[in-house]
Amino acid sequence: MRSILKDGNRSGKEGAVAEAEDTINRRARGLDRAFEILDFLRLQRQPLRPNEIAQGIGAPRSSVYELVNLLIRQGIIEYRGDDGRVFLGRKLYFLGAAYAEQFDLMRESEHLLARIAEETRETAQMCQLEGNKYAVVLMNEGSRPFRISTNIGEPVAIPWTASGRLLVDHMSDEEILALIPQEDFVLPDGTRLEPSEFIAQVRNAKKEGYFTFNSIVDSFTHCFA
Predict the structure, then answer these.
(1) pTM, whole model, 2 decimals?
(2) Largest CB tally within 10 Å, which of 88, 111, 126, 157?
(3) What is the helix (H) or strand (E) element at residue 208, kind and residue range?
(4) Which among 180, 160, 154 is positioned nearest to 168, based on CA atoms?
(5) How much is the mean pLDDT over the chain?
(6) 131 and 77 in a common domain
(7) How many structural domains comprise the chain?
(8) DSSP characters for 60-114?
(9) d(C-alpha 54, C-alpha 146), whole Å
């Protein structure tokens, strides 16, 4: 009888542990999916219906609707218009503002970009890696009559940019090739930049401390990183 009770207690504990782990895993998956929804809205830069979001991220509509309702209740996303479309909510602005207050790099970069733009009269940008793409994080426009601008946070293929060479110069050749999708070596005009040539440019940029070229994206722009 004791043996049976002990075995029963052990089975009960193991079942409770397994159930707790399953709950944690479900919540983690839900959290990952919620961030995927937010990131998709950020990249699309327009209000969308939940079913459009589900289709865009390849997720079940039922789980997306459930998470959208949860994020709406928390003020993380909001309804836009009367047709059920949603977009990023104002609470994210306050969270971002609190983050910016403690992000010293951002403050220092703002001062530096302002100084560069004032001295050169050219547009100055700070960029960073966003997954396997390049993105502008901060920008200070120059004072010339004709000047370039870029949407903050918009992902761009790394090989298309001057600063992309410097963003990956700490990586090995193998790491660079593993990071950048092969299709990103196809330039906007349809020509292909050979990965070996790109890596050679990366190594030379690291040695020289800078990289400069006529913009691949904008025909009337010269970029200096």
Answers:
(1) 0.48
(2) 157
(3) helix 195-208
(4) 180
(5) 81
(6) no
(7) 2
(8) -HHHHHHHHHHHHHTTSEEE-SSSS-EEE-HHHHHHHHHHHHH-HHHHHHHHHHH
(9) 41
